[in-house]
Amino acid sequence: MELGVGEAFALANNAAATIRGAFGCDHEVLVVLGSGWAESVPTLEALSSAPVQTMDVGDIPGFKKPTALGHGGALKSISIGGTSVLLLTGRTHLYEGRGVHAVVHGVRTAYALGCRTVVLTNGAGCLRTEWPVGTPVVICDHINLTAHSPLTGDNAPAPLAGRFVDLTDAYNESLRALVRSVEPGIHEAVYLGLHGPHFETPAEIRMAATFGADMVGMSTVLETIAARHLGMNVLALSLATNLASGLSGNKLSGEEVIQVGKDSSEKVGDLLSRILIAFDQRKSEIVS
Asked: What CATH number belongs to 5-283?
């Protein structure tokens, strides 16, 4: 049964208390590793300037191990220079049937732990045939066709009440500029989010192209809405794990997504590392 809004925020606070007790501190940045990005964990751990701490998400209130292929079930605490980072090695998707609040529980928990910046990553089908499979891009905007919102229902408890969130700047321009500074020439993309778990039909991809989408996937948009409701700054990165349905003539599969992630592990791990290092060096310019 879907939780009520008040229950969902209370559960996030309970989860934050459990994590704080285990890790002994609050954090500044949440990084969520989506499909194709989990292989970057060793690279990020190697950067940590403090011992890496790890929890099984099953030991944290409100979390369950993701069932999606290629998603891990750990929460890690790492330090990039002077920046404390929470690293979720997988996420809950709407299609797993746990409800909208479960999808955004990680974001709300991170907020309760002090995080004001969230880095969301995903693997997605690419509509731009000139972008090779395995290309990482920066999300600059999204189209939410999941037919859901984490703000549905009662107002959040004070002082977080307010359901009419402005998404004009959903994806923070300063954070996107930071990425461009470490990876000049990286493409920006509009991401179209669908419910899943099935892949899209060729007709749906033609519709997405008409709408102006560059990437299509099954995550990220609800987490972004929840984060912006809380005033968090959002950076989102997408890995082109396949050409979208009907564009290549190939059958689509989850295994292909996982394999592209493995093949791209060095590339995406290096990119995430450079982004987090640059953020640590320049966060006073970005975080208001």
From this structure: 3.40.50.1580
